[in-house]
Amino acid sequence: MQRFRCKGLFAALTAAALVMTVTTPSSFAANEKFVLISHAPDSDSWWNTIKNAIKQAGEDFNVSVDYRNPPNGDLADMSRLIEQAAARNYDGVIVSIADFSVLKKSVEAVVAKKIPVITINSGTQQQSEQLGAVMHVGQPEYDAGYGAGEKAKAAGIKSFLCVNHYATNPSSFERCRGFAEAIGADYKKSTLDTGIDPTAVESKVSAYLRNNPGTQAVLALGPDSAVPSLRALQKMGLKSKVWFATFDLSEDIVKGIKDGSVQFAIDQQPYLQGYIPVAALAIMKQYKTNDLAVVQEKLKANPKFQARLAEYGLAPIYGPRHISSGPGYITKDNLEKVLKYAGQYR
């Protein structure tokens, strides 16, 4: 997993904004107000975990956090939400980089107002830096796909179908590409844009498998594509015969791991993508510092954060600047550790 140095860390901020002396507040009680803006449509239940995370982080650090998203997942609408956040002068903005080119101008407008930005979930660490964000909290998508592909290759897999239910997010294809390159397949020929409607996903997956009967594996990019894909396999008599893996967890995916029809779920620990940015922004404000080494030190030492990690079985990966929330792999061996909180905090 690639790491990046801190050179040019705050190029988008003025020198006057750098306060390297850390002061210790009596408590997190500055009534700061942050906003998290995601690219997810209202129908995407996966983001409920992140919503729960920002609620808990807001309570733990005594800050207010709004959640905003484009109801239909339209990125132009998302860009407008970011512009509105700049106009409303939030104390900090958290945003997913669903499409760098579409969101670049609006995010830079936030940075230009000296409002700290933390990027999460989609997009890359390099893109986060180019936008002038403080840090990125997420899972490197290509690495996650490649790691899953390595496991498939070890099982003898040479062909696969990547079921992409959110092809409107360019970074989603990195998951497919990583998997394909790990097993030596052509990712473009192996990737199917299905959309999010479960009936359409099931129909398209069924048609692909009928037209490509030699397909050995299916990789789904999340519950919205995994569940209807599993249904398609079951109706075709291929469930447990076709090697199957997916990103993220849901009730049906948990059942699949238990019965062996799902090899594993790639876990990007979304709770961390909600909690850590809120906590980091609160620490920056309350301790009056932009030094990320100090921010991470205070985060690691915070008893409420550590209690959350222990309770939910979470493990962030700290870098000198960015924090990775994954990938991890949930199998039969560790499923019970996360089952209790699936869909809520995992």
What's the SSE blueprint?
Layout: E1 33-37, H1 48-61, E2 64-68, H2 75-87, E3 92-96, H3 100-112, E4 117-121, H4 125-131, E5 135-138, H5 141-154, E6 160-164, H6 172-183, H7 187-190, E7 191-193, H8 198-211, E8 217-220, H9 223-235, E9 243-247, H10 251-259, E10 265-267, H11 270-286, H12 292-301, H13 303-312, E11 317-318, E12 323-324, E13 328-330, H14 335-339
Parallel strand pairs: 1-2, 1-3, 3-4, 4-5, 5-12, 6-7, 6-8, 8-9, 9-10
Antiparallel strand pairs: 10-13, 11-12
Helix pairs in contact: 1-11, 2-3, 5-6, 8-9, 11-12
Structure report:
The chain has helices spanning 48-61, 75-87, 100-112, 125-131, 141-154, 172-183, 187-190, 198-211, 223-235, 251-259, 270-286, 292-301, 303-312, 335-339; strands spanning 33-37, 64-68, 92-96, 117-121, 135-138, 160-164, 191-193, 217-220, 243-247, 265-267, 317-318, 323-324, 328-330. It is built from 14 helices and 13 strands. Strands 2-1-3-4-5-12-11 form a seven-stranded mixed sheet, with helices on both faces. The chain is an alpha/beta fold. β8, α9 and β9 form a beta-alpha-beta unit.
Average pLDDT over all residues: 90
The structure class reads alpha/beta
Which blocks of ≥5 consecutive residues have pLDDT under 50? 1-26
Q: Count all strands and give the number.
A: 13
Query: What share of the residues does DSSP label as strand, in percent?
Result: 5-15%
Strand line-up in the sheet with most strands: 2-1-3-4-5-12-11
For the sheet with most strands, the description reads: 7 strands, mixed
What order do the helices and strands follow? EHEHEHEHEHEHHEHEHEHEHHHEEEH
Helix content: 40-55%
* Intertermini distance: 22 Å
Characterize the overall form. Answer: globular
Helical run tally? 14
What is the radius of gyration? 20 Å
